[in-house]
Amino acid sequence: MAATAAEPLAVAGTSGIPGSAERSLLVDADVHPLIRDTSVLAPRMSRRVARRIFGSHVGTFARDPNRIPHPSSGLRLDALPPSGGPAGCDPAFAREQWLDPYDVNAAVLIPVQSGVVIPWGDERASQEFISAFNDYLLDDWHGLDARYRVTISVTPHDPAAAIREVERLAGVDGVVAIFVPHASVSLGRRQWWPLYELAADRGLPIVVHPTGAESNLVDAPWVAGGLPRNYPERHSLLLHPGQSMLSSLVFSGVFDAVPSLKVVLSEYGFSWVPALTMRMDDAWEKGDRELAGIERAPSDYVRESVRFTTQPLDEPADRRDLWRLLELMDADRTLLFSSDYPHWDTDDPDVILRTRLPHHLRDRIAWQSAVDVFGPRLGL
Amino acid sequence: MIDCELHPLIDRLEDLLPHMDEATALRVSQSEFRLPPASPHPGVDVEARRLEGGTDPVAVAASLPAAIDRALLVAAQAMPTPGWLDHGLAAAFVEAVNRHLVDRWLPADPRFRLAIALSPHQAPLAVREIERHAGVAGVAAAAMPLIAVAMGHEHYHPVYRALSERGLPLLVHPGGSEGEVLGAAAIGGTGPRTPEETFTLLPQVAQANLASLVFNGVFELFPELTVVFAGWGFEWAPTLVWRADSEWRGLRVAVPWLRRPPSEVIAEHVRFVVDGAASALRPGTWEHAALLPESALVYGSDAPFDAVGPEERLALAPAGLRERIAENAVSLFGARG
Amino acid sequence: MSGLHGVGTVADFELNRFRTASLDGKEIGVVRTRRGFFAVGSRCPHQGADLCAGLLTETTMAPSRPHEYVLSRDRLVLACPWHRWEFDLETGRAIGAITRKRMAVYPVEVVGDDVFVRLPGGDG
Question: I need a surface site. Which of A22, A244, A277, C32 has the fewest CB within 10 A?
Fold first, then answer.
């Protein structure tokens, strides 16, 4: 017996505390658009590929919901569009529920749904699906509202195809970053470097974000230890692939080869950043700064080139405990506000920015650091 | 001050053969089998170094710092078993290591205490090993490395039961195959490719196993059990504690056997060793220590690897915490200390 | 104005469906259930989500042994639509002591066909 959405007698408040007079701009660095029925992409694909993909069932997500089910739903229960379909599939409703009441000036769309291609062996199909998905987001989301800024996906299976896709779209208004749904090849590997050179050259950060495939699909990254047994156990360990990608990138030397490359680790948390960075520096020192083959301390690269998003914000009993770690991670430069709208563990911008973070970092986290990393591509 | 992590080294396989049945001794000496190297945390060492000393119990005892009242012997060379596929061989090997340490090390100095090495592969064999040595004077703990079955799994329940009944805390320690070998505990991502990555990411294994212990209710079933993470650092722990609490608050219905926050469970049942892995000479490390309960940390020298005495290793700890760290180990081992 | 606030008639309330109103500057949700009427502050004490759009159930999970699930049916539970924090619809207390923060709850009085919420202060 579920309650249905509230029916107002008078004025019903929207969720949270909308609007804020206390900050000037807001960039939401992690918003998730969803295609309700991926077969709408078929007309944008070749006949063979459309038949290949839609002849068999293509899941909406890269995670079988039966494998490790969320006890209710991985999406907000109050974000169902009146037009039907799951939360996040209607850009007009998302605008009404999220962008407008919260004065979001730019929402970075990260389409984790493109992670469905992770287990696909048909590389042509992966490329066409992803291209179609990119075009759909630009047309239906950015085309509806310029505040939606699109992180274009690239196929994780074919670096040359990934480069062609970036070349195709880098000049299109609304394109803000590149999402690599990470599969079995670590992001530090040399095969990615030409993509990173192009990305840096075009001012496009590389975005890394969980896809749902972690510790589920054979071709996807995994969390440490063994197989988790329940949802909270797995969910609390999703930082691992992000940490691994980060250390892979740092120790590969790519930041020496491509100094202007920017990487955003989205939805992996950030309170672990000082601990991991110290450990990377220790590893570098243990080899007398020579063995690793990189020119600078890992912490330098992280400060210069890597960014993290705030959601899900840790909630220690005393928020000042978290603040100590902010100081250790150059949070005035490295941290970007994110909501993860419309997922269940979303963060409210005003609660986070007004009550959970230090005042002097508010504007940096709310929009300034986002402008620094995404630049004029945010459209602000 | 109790040193919770002193590594007795074995330099000859021949020292172990007398402690095996003759068939196992034959298999071990005539096959490809090799005594695991006595190197610092094999696999995570960024640069292999030749090691001097550490194999003579009398010499090791003589070199104990004056501040050390007790030293827990943790056999690093018994920790690579997660990568071994012959479970019987793994069990027989650690049994021989334990007998050797009981025979030659425990009697060498009254300050020595022993952590019984366990192979994680087959719980009944580990239980047998616990029963064999739990009554031996000087035995104060057990030590186990980690396989790809996380610690919350029912697989380990007989081991936890035996340890709880015998009042033995469980140390978990790296063995060198983490993240590199199928069957050993995985490191996250797609597998580290360089020693720097392995070193950096190794704490993930401890983090994952802590999440597994908590979210699968091990401490609800075994309220007498204490788990000590040795060799993984501890700076990773505050993130896990906070995140686990947030998950529990929203997802209690998925884990309704958790009647209290994970942070409380961890404060009561889990300890972390401040050893060589813990970047102890960085101020940032002690900022992280301040985010954990005062009861959380114990000292370990990690000798003869990365060996630094307690004064130096704890030099940056606030004075009160240093004392507390010493007390925590006393409480941990109780009458066995 | 504190005191009693009329929020409609019994017939206005479909079973288990919240209706909200702004009363005395507070967002209040009122619901008719098989166990009677309840009124709550609609903002979740966690991050302010609209509790009235959450999950209202008669069951939740009782404390149990590891890997066992036992239903408890002794109270009505409202789960926040965001992070799913569960609150006792009658007392406002969090289920399972997950937090000391409480959902605000207000007495409801039904007089004849009319439904009233009593807010603190005032008389009436």
Answer: A22
Residue A121 in any domain: the answer is yes
Looking at the domain assignment, is residue A25 inside a domain? no
CATH number for the domain that contains residue A71: 3.20.20.140
Tens digit of each residue's pLDDT, chain C (124 residues): 569 999 999 999 999 999 999 999 999 999 999 999 999 999 999 999 999 999 999 999 999 999 999 999 999 999 999 999 999 999 999 999 999 999 999 999 999 999 999 999 755 4
Distance CA(B43)–CA(A17), nearest Å, equals: 51
And the tokens for A119? 């287990």
Task: Chain A: give the shortest CA distance to residue C109, in Å.
Answer: 18
> How far away is chain A from the Cα of B206, in angstroms, using its nearest Cα?
8
Contact state of A9 with C19 under an 8 Å Cβ cutoff: yes
The domain limits of chain B are: 2-336
Q: Helices A159-169 and A193-201: crossing angle, nearest 10°?
A: 10
Per CB-CB distance under 8 Å, the chain A contacts of C31 are 3
**Residue A16 · residue A355 · CB < 8 Å:** no
**Nearest by Cα to A140 from A267, A35, A248, A253:** A35
Pairwise CA distance, residues B79 & A24, whole Å = 56
Tally of domains in chain A: 1
CATH code of the domain made up of C3-119: 2.102.10.10
The CATH topology of domain B2-336 is TIM Barrel (3.20.20)
Q: Select from A72, A180, A247 the residue whose CB has the most chain B CBs within 10 Å, as the one to mutate to test that interface.
A: A247
Instruction: Describe the strand order of the beta sheet including C86-88 as a list of residue ranges.
Output: C55-57, C77-79, C86-88
pTM of the model: 0.95
pLDDT tens for each residue of A108-142 = 999 999 999 999 999 999 999 999 999 999 999 99
In terms of residue numbers, what domain contains A145? 31-378
Please state at what angle helix A239-252 crosses helix A273-286, rounded to 10 degrees: 30
A4/C contact by beta carbon, under 8 A: yes
